Amino acid sequence: MNLKFLYFVIFMLCLGQNLRAQYVEKEEEEKITTLYPEAVFDSIQAKKALALGKGKITGVAFTKTAPLAPRIYADNMKIMLFPVTPYFEAWYKLRNSKENLRKRRYVYMSDAAFRYRLEAISNSVGKFTFPDMKPGKYFLTGNMSWSSTGSYNEHTGTSYGSYGTQADHYEKRYYTQNHEERLEKFVEVKTDGEIVEVKLK
User: Fold this and answer.
1) CATH homologous superfamily for 31-154+168-200?
2) What are 139-170's pLDDT values in tens digits?
3) How far apart are CA 32 and CA 106, in angstroms?
4) How many whole angstroms separate alpha carbon 198 and alpha carbon 127?
């Protein structure tokens, strides 16, 4: 066996051993912080805010991929309605804090506060209704799932002619991309019996 080749094999074996070092640095785990509002939740206040009235909140939930693009309607989406209480305002302010968003801090409501809500399901064209609403301020929210499709030309090879010419060959490929979007809006029923129409987008 050639002596230089033998040295090369020994060197490569040693290099492989070096890749299996005694001390391997662990990957850093993502630090997740959970926060709750410091405000005290008043269940009596929330219950009164959701008492029956004569008004109605109705609307349509949708999104767009671009300003002039057609609407994508929220089909069979659950929409939650929360009364805007001092506790809710504290939660919303905390959740939308730029510092908390930057540091990936997750802000939650208390279980007691989350229970005081109403729910509606949209139809296939995104329409929904909350009947029997009394005057007050409310917050609507829902997570909308939708998908988009597209295509691209994938290079599959090159052929060469007898006179030095060449031709690239492509094949059309299709893909589907899933999206998740949070739709939110503040709504106010000003008078008892008022019908408020909203666009949840």
Assistant:
1) Immunoglobulins (2.60.40.10)
2) 999 999 988 888 989 999 898 888 878 899 99
3) 7
4) 10
